[in-house]
Specification:
The complex is a heterodimer of chains A (529) and B (467). Chain A has 529 residues and is an alpha/beta fold. Chain A is built from 16 helices and twelve strands. Chain A has a seven-stranded mixed beta sheet, with helices on both faces. Chain B folds into two domains: 76-84 and 363-466, Aspartate Aminotransferase, domain 1 (Alpha-Beta Complex); 91-356, 3-Layer(aba) Sandwich (Aspartate Aminotransferase, domain 2). Helix content of chain B is 36%, strand content 14%. A seven-stranded mixed beta sheet of chain B has the order 2-8-7-6-5-3-4, with helices on both faces. Chain B has a four-stranded antiparallel beta sheet with strand order 11-12-15-14, covered by helices on one side. In chain B, strands 1-13 form a two-stranded parallel sheet. The chains are: A alpha/beta (529), B alpha/beta (467). At the A-B interface, helix 1, helix 2, helix 3, helix 4 and helix 5 of A face helix 1, helix 2, helix 3, helix 4 and helix 5 of B. Chain B: This is Putative glycine dehydrogenase (Decarboxylating) subunit 1. Chain B: InterPro entries: GcvPA, GDC-P_N, PyrdxlP-dep_Trfase, PyrdxlP-dep_Trfase_major, PyrdxlP-dep_Trfase_small. Chain B: Residues 18-423 form the Glycine cleavage system P-protein N-terminal domain.
Chain lengths: 529, 467
């Protein structure tokens, strides 16, 4: 666990905002004008557009050549750490995004495929979607998957829509207006439940690290529409009473949904349907090797459910009939659309490729390695001054994540988790992740080792935290003013939220800067007067 | 049991290194680390998945599977209806595929400075096209943007009805209905559909006036409409909404904004739309993306469900960086009390779109808009000359128009089957979603369609119809 730290300096390009670049008249891309016979036939363009809706002004976009634009963005890409450093961003299951998957997904057979083409011309894409569905069924025990959701939150929303349709079909929707979550359910679970119109009941944790059965029993009633829960949670704690939870919710007439955000720990070890869950979701951009792009996407929340809920799934479903794939949209009880078309088919392809490259043994091993790596890191991290862990008294090993705290460090040095985050990037290390809200553990941080990085990389990560702890005790200002080796310094606190200074576009920035400059001048005048 | 060889994606799949790690923490076997999971939760057998493939085997398998697709590149396609074929510059593809931001998880503003700046530049450039100062980071699609915007309007006004045009993408309408919640829910938003005038395809203002009232949170319409039309009554529609104290929400295709007015200039309060035409391929439907934009007023800013990126000074005087703004009102911070919900979206497409907009510049948008309008009108007129074909709304559209085949004695489905045999993808069949339009299809013609393409289509249609 003794790694030597690398010297690191991020590229400093001092790149202007693109709105300040270019020269009037320069062009980045040209289009062939309409042929003379077309222009002759249709005449003046302005006659074809209603005069009231003809644009009068020129949008103030930069005027640049192709290489100017290309190199500007390549410089910006160089000022993005991504996984070039070591990224152990907890709950997001950082893992390698294989290049072969990108190469295949960017073939024209996918990029130039229109989703409204006839099924006969999309058999390859539909086959991949269907085969991915079958593999996820095997991993989960569910009966059908749909890939329309463009991320985990949208899959959680899909679950809420399916829950509405299920209870509506029984005439109980008006009565069943509550969804139960735990304080450790990802924020998207309560948020989508509320946006779907449900009241949210949140269970708090007891000393074991998960809510008690009594708390659940007190929460369920004939108003319960569903339970939405993550297991293991983001602290690496597995709730062993989950079968009983599902039974209690079912007995009350509710549905049970398993947010498999943390499936890296349990894939190949258990199947949500066998625990009793009616539905689950997998993040293809996390567990299944597709890229995340800055918690940005395009991503895919694969939503799977039991046969009982299949009629309510969004449409269309990809089905196989006698060796041919087709889109089934004739589904009268379906919730319809959550998002346009079939979902991010290119992401499904990447996840399919990852699953085929891993195979059953590879997937089982990835889960083993993730849990081993987390426990390995835990020993190294808990040996660092100022670092503690949630539920310190618990004796069983955590799963693929552990929730730590810098509270002691903060009390003793004034350096908080945000400072450590910034300082990490000075070592070329992707900043740590803290915790979802609310922070149950003060000054939290949550590394997730995953299966991609080797022991040497994990040792590096630990060594960086150890170094920062030493700095905090010897020279806290160094940490509190970090980063020092990055493309830019840290932002002034509060500057992005203050309505006087925040500017989400260049045009807003220009106006506010001008206004501030003016008021600055006014103040100076007032002083002079 | 260990597989015989290490896996290329897993550095710790070497048995000896696992042994080192286990020894270091004093654990004999990895299985001991799973004791939290009760035995009766465990899967009792190994997973039954297809055999693992080497990279070469995987490549062959995927190439073979994908070869069963026949694309808009192999065929001459006139499909649009929510996702459209436009030219994507090669430089845009090179930029968007960079591993640095592809693999990023967002770090902190300084460690992912380049990604944050590119996001800010996306919002800034879109703001110029829209003439709006407040642009959120993309949402997952036009439909989800419209759904969120209608919910914003309901919160802003405290009202629970919306007027939405009938001439709308049925997929988008279905999403809107989900976002507006079923009637059983306490916060259900009633959706009133506003018809279009069957003669012109434009919004029926009389019905709009009769529908909009004290309970109306928003009026939602689109320019161009789903049927392709540029509704010259846009300012009147916005005025009707404003008079009733409702928000005007306009959906827009931004590639039209070099020639069409920015919606805020004719009265839009909230503008939503697609970003797909801005340098993003079709990706079998995975190219869709949406946006929400408004005036920069706290009243609006406080209701966005999106992520915002703000430019801001750093602690070094004179230096600027970019950071997330107003995160405290999102569901990340407030869970069920947040504004709708936030999560993975399509931010890589923001990177593509910002590169695209910068390459286009003001002149690129002006020219592409003119070329599209010319090519689309020419195509419509050319097809309208054919026996059995009528162009339902013959002028005043952008890149899509309705082609009616009632007099051809054949259904759209039959015609499209025959066109497909000629290597042509005909327009999207409207006959089931818009039965009042008869056997009609929505044809899309953009800058990529040449005069000879239209001649080829016309020749094929003539042949199909006369058969």
């Amino acid at each position: 666990m003794n790694a030597i730290l690398k010297q690191y300096q991020a590229p400093v390009w001092n790149e202007p905002v693109i709105m300040e670049m270019g020269y009037p008249g320069r062009r980045g891309v040209l289009f062939a004008p309409a042929e003379p016979e077309i222009r002759q036939q249709v005449g003046d363009v302005s006659a074809l557009i209603p005069s009231k809706l003809r644009r009068q002004d020129r949008p103030a976009l930069p005027e640049m050549t192709e290489p100017e634009v290309l190199y500007h963005y390549l410089r910006l890409s160089q000022q993005t750490l991504g996984m070039m450093g070591i990224s152990l961003f907890g709950t997001c299951t950082m893992k390698y995004n294989p290049q072969i998957n990108e190469q295949m997904a960017w073939r024209p057979e996918i990029t130039e495929l229109h989703p409204l083409q006839h099924e006969d011309t999309m058999q390859g894409a539909l086959e991949i979607v269907h085969e991915m569905d079958l593999m996820l069924r095997e991993l989960s025990g569910m009966d059908q998957f749909v890939f329309q959701a463009g991320g985990g939150s949208e899959a959680a929303y899909t679950n809420c829509a399916v829950t509405r349709a299920y209870h509506a079909s029984k005439g109980e929707l008006e009565q069943r207006d509550e969804i139960i979550v735990t304080i450790q359910s990802h924020p998207c679970n309560p948020a989508t439940a509320a946006a779907a119109g449900f009241k949210v009941v949140t269970l708090m944790l007891d000393e074991n690290g998960y809510p008690s059965l009594d708390a659940l029993k007190a929460a369920v009633s004939n108003r319960t529409a569903a339970l939405m829960v993550t297991n293991p949670d983001d602290m690496g704690v597995y709730n062993p009473e989950m079968k009983e939870w599902v039974r209690i919710v079912h007995e009350a007439g509710g549905l049970a949904f398993y947010d498999a955000a943390n499936f890296n720990a349990t894939m190949s070890k258990l199947r949500p349907r066998e625990i009793g869950f009616d539905a689950c979701m997998f993040m293809l951009h996390k567990t299944f090797g597709a890229p995340k792009s800055g918690v940005g996407g395009p991503a895919t929340g694969a939503y799977g459910c039991s046969a009982e809920l299949v009629p309510f799934l969004p449409s269309p479903l990809v089905v196989r009939d006698e060796g041919r794939y087709r889109l089934d949209a004739d589904r009268p009880q379906s919730v319809g659309k959550i998002r346009e078309f079939l979902g991010n088919v290119q992401v499904v392809l990447k996840a399919y490729a990852w699953t085929r490259a891993m195979g059953a043994d590879g997937i089982a091993q990835a889960s083993d390695i993730s849990v081993l790596a987390n426990n390995y890191m835990e020993k190294g991290l808990l040996a660092i001054r100022g670092v503690t862990r949630s539920h310190p008294e618990a004796t069983t090993p955590r799963m693929e994540m552990t929730r730590y705290s810098f509270q002691t460090l903060k009390e003793e040095t004034g350096v908080d988790t945000h400072d450590v985050q910034n300082r990490m990037s000075d070592f070329g290390m992707d900043p740590l992740w803290q915790s979802h809200e609310p922070w149950l553990v003060p000054e939290p941080f949550t590394p997730e080792a995953g299966e991609t990085y080797g022991k040497e990389a994990l040792d590096q990560w630990i060594a960086v935290i150890r170094r920062i702890s030493e700095e905090a005790y010897s020279n806290p200002e160094l940490v509190k003013t970090s980063p020092h080796n990055q493309a830019v310094h840290r932002l002034k606190p509060g500057a992005t939220d203050d309505p006087e200074s925040r500017a989400m576009t260049w045009r807003a920035f220009q106006k506010k800067r001008l206004r501030q400059a003016r008021s600055g001048t006014d103040q100076m005048r007032a002083v002079v007067d | 049991m260990q597989p015989p060889t290490a896996h290329p994606y897993m550095a710790n799949s070497v048995p000896a290194i696992q042994r080192e790690m286990l020894d270091s923490i004093g654990v004999r076997d990895i299985e001991e680390l799973f004791v939290q999971i009760p035995a009766d939760h465990r899967l009792a057998r190994p997973l039954d998945l297809p055999p693992a493939l080497s990279e070469h085997e995987l490549r062959r398998h995927l190439v073979e599977t994908l070869s069963k697709n026949s694309t808009t590149e192999d065929n001459l396609s006139f499909l649009g209806a929510g996702i459209w074929q436009h030219h994507v510059p090669a430089a845009v593809d090179e930029i968007v595929r960079r591993n640095e931001w592809l693999t990023s998880i967002y770090g902190v503003p300084s460690s992912d400075h380049g990604l944050y700046q590119s996001w800010f530049e996306f919002c800034s450039q879109l703001g110029e096209l829209l003439n709006l100062d407040l642009v959120g980071m993309p949402v997952r699609s036009w439909g989800t943007a419209a759904g969120h915007a209608l919910r914003m309007a309901a919160r802003l006004t405290g009202r629970n009805e919306v007027a939405v045009v009938r001439a709308i993408d049925p997929e988008r309408l279905s999403i809107i209905r989900n976002y507006c919640e079923p009637p059983e829910m306490a916060d259900h938003i009633v959706v009133h559909l506003i018809n279009y005038d069957p003669a012109t395809g434009l919004v029926d203002l009389d019905q709009l006036r009769a529908t909009v009232g004290a309970q109306t949170a928003a009026v939602y319409f689109e320019v161009p409409s789903y049927l392709g039309l540029i509704d010259h009554q846009a300012a009147e529609i916005a005025a009707i909404a404003r008079a009733a104290g409702a928000e005007t929400i306009v959906g827009v295709d931004p590639i039209s904004l070099g020639v069409l007015s920015a919606p805020s200039d004719y009265g839009a309060d909230i503008v939503v739309g697609t970003i797909q035409p801005l340098g993003i391929h079709l990706h079998a439907g995975g190219g869709v993306g949406g946006f929400i934009a408004t005036r920069d007023e706290p009243r609006y800013a406080g209701e966005y469900p999106t992520l915002f990126i703000s430019i801001a000074e750093t602690i070094k005087p004179g230096e600027y960086g970019f950071g997330r703004a107003l995160l405290h009102q999102s569901s990340y911070a407030l869970r069920e009390k947040g504004k709708d919900w936030i999560g993975h979206s399509v931010y890589m497409w923001a990177v593509a779109a910002t590169a695209y907009m910068a390459m286009m510049g003001p002149q690129g948008f002006a020219e592409i808009g003119e070329i599209i309008v010319q090519r689309a009108h020419h195509a419509a007129r050319r097809l309208g000359e054919l026996e059995g074909i009528t162009i339902t709304f013959p002028s005043g559209f952008f890149k899509e128009f309705v082609v009616n085949f009632d007099d051809a004695g054949k259904s759209v489905s039959e015609i499209n089957d025959a066109l497909r045999a000629e290597g042509i993808f005909g327009g999207h069949d409207l006959s089931s979603d818009f039965p009042e339009l008869g056997q009609s299809a929505l044809y899309c013609v953009s800058e990529v369609h040449t005069h000879s393409d239209i001649e080829r289509l016309a020749g094929a249609l003539q042949k199909v119809i006369s058969q």
